[in-house]
Amino acid sequence: MTPPETRFERSVADLLAELAPSHPPVDLIPETEHAVDETRRWPRWLAILKEPPMRHRSHLVVGSPTARVAAIAVVTLLMAILGVGALVAGAQSPSPMPPEEVSAAAPVVFDGHIECGPEVRSGTTISAPIEGGGSGTWRRGYAWQQTATMSDPRLEGTHYASGSYDTYLLPSPGGDLEAKIAYRETQRIVNDDGAWQGSMITFVAPEERDAERATGTGTTANVLTYLLVGEGGYEGLTAIYDQVWDGACGFDVRGIILDGDLPPAEPFIPEQ
Amino acid sequence: MPRELVERAMRGDREAFSALLRTAAPRQYAVAHLILRDGDRAQDAVQEAFVSAWKGLSALRDPDAWGAWLHRLTVRACYRAARREKHRRSVELHVMPDLEPAGSEEPLTALLHRDQLERELDRLPIEQRAVIVLRYFADLPLDQVAAILDIPIGTAKSRQSRGLSAMRASMDASLEATQALAVERAS
């Protein structure tokens, strides 16, 4: 035991020992077991996202903290880039696009399963207060090697996922500020004949996601849609698929492989 | 805490997690009870902490840190429970013990000492009480307390110091008042 330093501190320790219940209520453990049974585990990326970094005995045991100054700088820089990008995009006129022919070719349907795997590239995690209240997390640069089983052999191979996200505060319909996480993940599949690469984004409030998962009513928050473009031997092909979280640390996958790309969605800009 | 159980639970083994739960729940309940000073809310907080642990277990990098991380989750659940109940106001009834039946001064003094300490513990801000409980009940060194609470060690030290000072000051004042009353009654 770490010895209390003074007689008074010993009195406090004795008092706490005396006040502490010797046994928990009889229903604590069975009720907690039941609650755990009803709970699905978060996938690794979400768990790391939601758990603030923690050091224990001088080494990192949860997350990966860095300086708050860096967090603010990263967020400020990102927002500045986004702002400039939006201004530039808004100032550009769209170029006319030729009409697309409708492809009659039926897509190849596939399904599969992707399981969480080890981290292959460490990144940076920053947790810091957000102006306006609460705290947020920013992550950059992490990558994992996943294990995948796909019904279409073209999508078999070594699967990598890399992701980054930021936390934002924005007004909810009720007027309160709520946290939203903007998460972008890139997947890359490599095999002997070529590679696939593409991304998805999701913009969710952690609390909404929790509620949906707890009640089993979740839809959008549990489904992540990816678009991967083929390279090498798969040049000209596009894979589109949904990943549905399986409740543990994996995803069920279902999608299609297209010969070509999706038709473009041409922006409409009224003539002045 | 068996490292193997934690590793199995990290891989999704529910039985291993149940074993961890059965082992750790009594201690976590005691900690939550001391922080919240309420059995029902402590039970809810412990349940919430274990559910959080199960959901977020894949964020744990080092199985040996399971205990410290669980303390963190319990304390966080206690903070949330306290925030939910902050609108509630309890009316504190101070009862000055009857000095006449006491057989000797020493047991009476000890009783007053203990009651006053308990009362002052109840009055501490929950952030200070959490430090006191982790330091003197869970028997954790202050640097670990700071890590669990995700605060700088200087903040942990000041919360400990302020909490202890408040308890000591209140106890001293109470003892002085009791001694004065005893002298008055004796004269």
Give the integer mean of the pLDDT values of chain B: 83
Percentage of β-strand residues of chain A: 35-45%
Number of beta-strand segments of chain A: 12
Biggest interface, chains and residue tallies? A-B, 49 and 51 residues
The termini of chain A sit apart by 79 Å
DSSP summary: helix tally of chain A: 5
Helical proportion of chain B, percent range: over 70%
Given the structure, what is the number of helices of chain B?
8
Q: Give the overall pLDDT of chain A as a whole number.
A: 78
The profile of the biggest β sheet of chain B is: none
The whole-angstrom Rg of chain B is 20 Å
What's the arrangement of strands in the largest beta sheet of chain A? 3-6-7-8-9-10-11-12
Poorly predicted sequence stretches spanning 5 or more consecutive residues of chain A: 66-72, 93-104, 211-220
Q: Could you give a short account of the major beta sheet of chain A? A: 8 strands, antiparallel, barrel
Low-confidence stretches of chain B are 87-104
Kindly report the oligomeric state of this protein.
heterodimer
Order of helices and strands of chain B: HHHHHHHH
TL;DR?
The complex is a heterodimer of chains A (272) and B (187). Helices cover 24% and strands 40% of the residues of chain A. Chain A contains 5 helices and 12 strands.
Lay out the secondary structure.
The complex is a heterodimer of chains A (272) and B (187).
Chain A: H1 7-19, H2 28-37, H3 44-50, E1 54-56, E2 59-62, H4 68-91, E3 108-115, E4 119-121, E5 124-129, E6 135-150, E7 158-171, E8 177-191, E9 194-204, H5 206-215, E10 223-232, E11 237-245, E12 250-259
Antiparallel strand pairs in A: 1-2, 3-6, 3-12, 4-6, 5-6, 6-7, 7-8, 8-9, 9-10, 10-11, 11-12
Chain B: H1 3-10, H2 14-36, H3 39-56, H4 66-84, H5 105-123, H6 126-136, H7 142-149, H8 153-186
